Amino acid sequence: MAFAPSSTPDPSPNTVNAQATATRKSADESGRLTGTQSIERALLLLREIAAHNRTGSRLLDLATRTSLQRPTVHRMLKCLAHEGMVQQDPDTHRYYLGSMAFELGLTAAPRFNLREIAHPGMVRIAEATGDTVFLTQRSGLDAVCIDRHEGTFPIKTFTLDIGMRRPLGVGTGSLAIVAALPEEEIQTIINSNQPRYEEYGVAGGTLLTQAKKAQKLGYSIREAPTLAGVRSVGHSIKNQSGVPFAALSVSTISSRMTEKRVLEIAQLLKNEARLIERQLNNGM
Questions:
Q1: Tens digit of each residue's pLDDT (9 = 90 or more) over 46-104
Q2: CA 222 to CA 239: how far, in whole Å?
Q3: 39, 45, 134, 232: which could form a disulfide with 251 (CB 3.0–4.6 Å)?
Q4: Does 64 share its domain with 176?
Q5: For the chain, what is the radius of gyration of the CA atoms?
Q6: Full-prediction pTM beyond 0.70?
Q7: Which of these three, 102, 136, 167, is where a domain ends?
Q8: In whole angstroms, how far apart are CA 227 and each of 4, 134, 142, 248, 252?
Protein backbone atom coordinates (compact mmCIF):
# COMPACT_ATOMS: atom_id res chain seq x y z
CA MET A 1 0.00 0.00 0.00
CA ALA A 2 1.50 3.34 -1.05
CA PHE A 3 1.48 6.42 1.12
CA ALA A 4 1.55 9.96 -0.20
CA PRO A 5 4.46 12.04 1.05
CA SER A 6 3.67 14.46 3.88
CA SER A 7 2.93 18.01 2.78
CA THR A 8 4.61 19.34 5.95
CA PRO A 9 8.38 19.19 5.71
CA ASP A 10 10.48 18.12 8.66
CA PRO A 11 11.74 21.13 10.61
CA SER A 12 15.30 22.09 9.88
CA PRO A 13 17.90 22.06 12.66
CA ASN A 14 17.84 25.86 12.67
CA THR A 15 14.07 25.87 13.21
CA VAL A 16 14.34 23.37 16.06
CA ASN A 17 17.04 25.44 17.74
CA ALA A 18 15.00 28.62 17.38
CA GLN A 19 11.94 26.94 18.87
CA ALA A 20 13.95 25.57 21.77
CA THR A 21 15.46 29.00 22.43
CA ALA A 22 12.03 30.60 22.37
CA THR A 23 10.72 27.97 24.79
CA ARG A 24 13.60 28.54 27.19
CA LYS A 25 13.15 32.31 26.92
CA SER A 26 9.44 32.00 27.66
CA ALA A 27 10.11 29.78 30.67
CA ASP A 28 12.81 32.16 31.87
CA GLU A 29 10.50 35.18 31.58
CA SER A 30 7.78 33.25 33.39
CA GLY A 31 10.21 32.44 36.17
CA ARG A 32 11.27 36.06 36.47
CA LEU A 33 7.65 37.16 36.61
CA THR A 34 6.92 34.69 39.37
CA GLY A 35 10.01 35.81 41.25
CA THR A 36 9.03 39.46 40.86
CA GLN A 37 5.54 38.76 42.13
CA SER A 38 6.96 36.98 45.17
CA ILE A 39 9.19 39.94 45.98
CA GLU A 40 6.28 42.36 45.58
CA ARG A 41 4.11 40.26 47.88
CA ALA A 42 6.85 39.97 50.49
CA LEU A 43 7.33 43.74 50.48
CA LEU A 44 3.57 44.23 50.72
CA LEU A 45 3.52 42.04 53.83
CA LEU A 46 6.43 43.91 55.36
CA ARG A 47 4.72 47.25 54.79
CA GLU A 48 1.52 45.99 56.40
CA ILE A 49 3.41 44.58 59.39
CA ALA A 50 5.28 47.88 59.75
CA ALA A 51 2.03 49.85 59.64
CA HIS A 52 0.72 47.89 62.65
CA ASN A 53 4.01 47.10 64.38
CA ARG A 54 2.91 48.57 67.71
CA THR A 55 0.06 46.06 68.15
CA GLY A 56 1.24 43.30 65.84
CA SER A 57 -0.69 41.55 63.09
CA ARG A 58 -2.42 38.18 63.02
CA LEU A 59 -2.15 35.91 60.00
CA LEU A 60 -5.82 36.52 59.24
CA ASP A 61 -5.32 40.30 59.47
CA LEU A 62 -2.46 40.20 56.99
CA ALA A 63 -4.35 37.98 54.57
CA THR A 64 -7.34 40.31 54.68
CA ARG A 65 -5.39 43.54 54.30
CA THR A 66 -3.23 42.25 51.45
CA SER A 67 -5.98 40.24 49.69
CA LEU A 68 -3.62 37.26 49.56
CA GLN A 69 -4.57 33.68 50.34
CA ARG A 70 -3.82 32.57 53.90
CA PRO A 71 -1.57 29.66 52.82
CA THR A 72 0.45 32.07 50.68
CA VAL A 73 0.78 34.57 53.52
CA HIS A 74 1.74 31.82 55.97
CA ARG A 75 4.39 30.44 53.62
CA MET A 76 5.92 33.86 53.01
CA LEU A 77 5.89 34.76 56.71
CA LYS A 78 7.80 31.57 57.52
CA CYS A 79 10.44 32.56 54.96
CA LEU A 80 10.64 36.14 56.25
CA ALA A 81 10.88 34.91 59.83
CA HIS A 82 13.69 32.53 58.88
CA GLU A 83 15.61 35.51 57.46
CA GLY A 84 14.94 37.64 60.54
CA MET A 85 12.77 40.16 58.69
CA VAL A 86 9.74 39.36 60.86
CA GLN A 87 9.17 37.66 64.20
CA GLN A 88 6.13 36.04 65.77
CA ASP A 89 5.15 36.47 69.39
CA PRO A 90 4.88 32.93 70.80
CA ASP A 91 1.97 33.85 73.08
CA THR A 92 -0.22 36.07 70.87
CA HIS A 93 0.95 34.62 67.53
CA ARG A 94 1.06 38.15 66.18
CA TYR A 95 3.76 39.19 63.72
CA TYR A 96 6.18 42.11 64.15
CA LEU A 97 9.19 43.40 62.23
CA GLY A 98 12.30 41.38 63.01
CA SER A 99 15.84 42.29 63.98
CA MET A 100 17.10 42.12 60.39
CA ALA A 101 14.63 44.82 59.32
CA PHE A 102 16.04 47.02 62.10
CA GLU A 103 19.63 46.31 61.07
CA LEU A 104 18.92 47.10 57.42
CA GLY A 105 17.29 50.36 58.48
CA LEU A 106 20.38 51.35 60.47
CA THR A 107 22.58 50.56 57.48
CA ALA A 108 20.44 52.65 55.13
CA ALA A 109 20.13 55.63 57.48
CA PRO A 110 23.38 57.44 56.46
CA ARG A 111 22.24 57.38 52.82
CA PHE A 112 19.09 59.31 53.68
CA ASN A 113 20.15 62.15 55.98
CA LEU A 114 16.84 64.04 56.24
CA ARG A 115 16.68 63.23 59.96
CA GLU A 116 20.14 64.68 60.49
CA ILE A 117 19.32 67.85 58.55
CA ALA A 118 15.93 68.34 60.22
CA HIS A 119 16.98 67.56 63.79
CA PRO A 120 18.28 71.03 64.80
CA GLY A 121 15.08 72.63 63.52
CA MET A 122 12.94 70.12 65.39
CA VAL A 123 14.81 70.95 68.58
CA ARG A 124 14.23 74.66 68.04
CA ILE A 125 10.50 74.14 67.45
CA ALA A 126 10.16 71.91 70.51
CA GLU A 127 11.99 74.44 72.68
CA ALA A 128 9.91 77.34 71.37
CA THR A 129 6.54 75.58 71.75
CA GLY A 130 7.12 73.07 74.54
CA ASP A 131 5.22 70.54 72.42
CA THR A 132 6.07 67.37 70.49
CA VAL A 133 7.46 67.76 66.95
CA PHE A 134 7.24 65.06 64.28
CA LEU A 135 9.10 64.50 61.02
CA THR A 136 7.15 62.52 58.42
CA GLN A 137 8.35 61.28 55.04
CA ARG A 138 6.35 59.99 52.10
CA SER A 139 6.79 56.37 51.01
CA GLY A 140 4.63 55.67 47.96
CA LEU A 141 1.00 55.72 49.06
CA ASP A 142 2.08 55.80 52.72
CA ALA A 143 3.74 58.21 55.11
CA VAL A 144 6.30 57.13 57.72
CA CYS A 145 7.27 58.95 60.92
CA ILE A 146 11.06 59.05 60.79
CA ASP A 147 11.77 61.24 63.83
CA ARG A 148 10.14 62.81 66.89
CA HIS A 149 11.30 65.35 69.45
CA GLU A 150 9.55 65.97 72.75
CA GLY A 151 8.90 69.39 74.23
CA THR A 152 8.88 70.29 77.91
CA PHE A 153 5.11 70.49 78.35
CA PRO A 154 4.22 67.72 80.87
CA ILE A 155 1.25 66.36 78.91
CA LYS A 156 2.71 64.48 75.95
CA THR A 157 0.78 63.81 72.74
CA PHE A 158 2.61 60.93 71.11
CA THR A 159 0.31 60.59 68.11
CA LEU A 160 3.08 58.84 66.18
CA ASP A 161 5.88 56.41 66.99
CA ILE A 162 9.11 56.56 65.01
CA GLY A 163 8.83 54.05 62.17
CA MET A 164 5.04 54.09 62.20
CA ARG A 165 3.58 53.78 58.69
CA ARG A 166 0.08 54.94 57.75
CA PRO A 167 -1.79 55.69 54.52
CA LEU A 168 -0.82 59.02 52.99
CA GLY A 169 -3.24 61.67 54.25
CA VAL A 170 -3.67 60.18 57.72
CA GLY A 171 -1.97 62.50 60.19
CA THR A 172 -1.34 66.24 59.96
CA GLY A 173 2.16 66.07 58.51
CA SER A 174 0.97 63.51 55.99
CA LEU A 175 -1.97 65.78 55.11
CA ALA A 176 0.45 68.67 54.52
CA ILE A 177 2.33 66.53 51.98
CA VAL A 178 -0.89 65.59 50.18
CA ALA A 179 -2.15 69.20 50.08
CA ALA A 180 1.06 70.37 48.38
CA LEU A 181 0.68 67.88 45.52
CA PRO A 182 -1.05 68.49 42.15
CA GLU A 183 -4.83 68.05 42.18
CA GLU A 184 -4.77 64.96 39.97
CA GLU A 185 -2.26 63.20 42.22
CA ILE A 186 -4.27 64.08 45.32
CA GLN A 187 -7.34 62.42 43.84
CA THR A 188 -5.33 59.36 42.81
CA ILE A 189 -3.94 58.97 46.34
CA ILE A 190 -7.37 59.30 47.95
CA ASN A 191 -8.94 56.83 45.53
CA SER A 192 -6.13 54.32 46.02
CA ASN A 193 -6.12 54.57 49.82
CA GLN A 194 -9.89 54.80 50.28
CA PRO A 195 -10.29 51.15 51.45
CA ARG A 196 -7.58 51.71 54.09
CA TYR A 197 -8.77 55.04 55.50
CA GLU A 198 -11.71 53.58 57.42
CA GLU A 199 -9.37 51.86 59.88
CA TYR A 200 -8.01 55.29 60.85
CA GLY A 201 -11.34 57.08 61.09
CA VAL A 202 -10.73 59.10 57.93
CA ALA A 203 -13.15 59.53 55.01
CA GLY A 204 -11.85 60.28 51.53
CA GLY A 205 -14.26 63.17 51.03
CA THR A 206 -13.28 64.74 54.33
CA LEU A 207 -9.61 64.35 53.50
CA LEU A 208 -10.09 66.13 50.19
CA THR A 209 -11.85 69.02 51.97
CA GLN A 210 -9.03 69.24 54.54
CA ALA A 211 -6.43 69.23 51.76
CA LYS A 212 -8.16 72.12 49.99
CA LYS A 213 -8.32 74.04 53.28
CA ALA A 214 -4.60 73.43 53.82
CA GLN A 215 -3.87 74.75 50.33
CA LYS A 216 -5.64 78.03 51.17
CA LEU A 217 -4.01 78.38 54.59
CA GLY A 218 -0.53 77.32 53.53
CA TYR A 219 -0.39 74.72 56.30
CA SER A 220 -2.46 71.73 57.48
CA ILE A 221 -4.46 71.63 60.70
CA ARG A 222 -6.75 68.99 62.12
CA GLU A 223 -8.03 67.30 65.19
CA ALA A 224 -6.53 63.82 65.51
CA PRO A 225 -9.34 61.49 64.33
CA THR A 226 -8.34 58.70 66.71
CA LEU A 227 -7.27 60.86 69.69
CA ALA A 228 -9.85 63.14 71.29
CA GLY A 229 -8.55 66.48 72.57
CA VAL A 230 -5.44 66.56 70.35
CA ARG A 231 -4.83 69.22 67.71
CA SER A 232 -1.96 69.36 65.23
CA VAL A 233 -0.41 71.72 62.68
CA GLY A 234 1.81 70.64 59.78
CA HIS A 235 3.91 72.07 56.94
CA SER A 236 5.35 70.27 53.93
CA ILE A 237 9.02 70.03 52.93
CA LYS A 238 9.99 69.94 49.24
CA ASN A 239 12.99 68.24 47.67
CA GLN A 240 15.47 69.72 45.21
CA SER A 241 12.92 69.29 42.40
CA GLY A 242 10.21 71.16 44.28
CA VAL A 243 8.22 67.99 45.01
CA PRO A 244 6.71 67.69 48.52
CA PHE A 245 8.15 64.55 50.09
CA ALA A 246 8.17 65.20 53.84
CA ALA A 247 6.63 67.38 56.53
CA LEU A 248 7.13 68.83 59.99
CA SER A 249 4.20 68.87 62.42
CA VAL A 250 3.44 69.81 66.02
CA SER A 251 0.82 68.11 68.18
CA THR A 252 -0.54 69.13 71.55
CA ILE A 253 -3.72 69.13 73.59
CA SER A 254 -6.49 71.20 72.00
CA SER A 255 -6.68 73.69 74.89
CA ARG A 256 -3.10 74.81 74.12
CA MET A 257 -3.69 75.12 70.38
CA THR A 258 -5.62 78.41 70.23
CA GLU A 259 -6.12 80.11 66.85
CA LYS A 260 -3.40 82.64 67.67
CA ARG A 261 -0.99 79.88 68.62
CA VAL A 262 -1.85 77.95 65.46
CA LEU A 263 -0.57 80.89 63.40
CA GLU A 264 2.59 81.17 65.49
CA ILE A 265 3.39 77.46 65.20
CA ALA A 266 2.56 77.43 61.49
CA GLN A 267 5.12 80.21 60.96
CA LEU A 268 7.74 78.31 62.97
CA LEU A 269 7.14 75.20 60.88
CA LYS A 270 7.32 77.18 57.64
CA ASN A 271 10.61 78.82 58.62
CA GLU A 272 12.24 75.53 59.57
CA ALA A 273 10.86 73.77 56.48
CA ARG A 274 12.38 76.44 54.23
CA LEU A 275 15.71 76.14 56.03
CA ILE A 276 15.69 72.37 55.51
CA GLU A 277 14.87 72.85 51.83
CA ARG A 278 17.82 75.24 51.40
CA GLN A 279 20.14 72.72 53.04
CA LEU A 280 18.83 69.96 50.76
CA ASN A 281 19.37 72.17 47.72
CA ASN A 282 22.94 72.82 48.87
CA GLY A 283 23.58 69.09 48.95
CA MET A 284 23.98 68.73 52.70
A1: 988 987 887 899 999 999 988 899 999 999 999 999 999 999 999 999 999 888 887 77
A2: 24
A3: 232
A4: no
A5: 25
A6: no
A7: 102
A8: 87, 16, 20, 19, 11
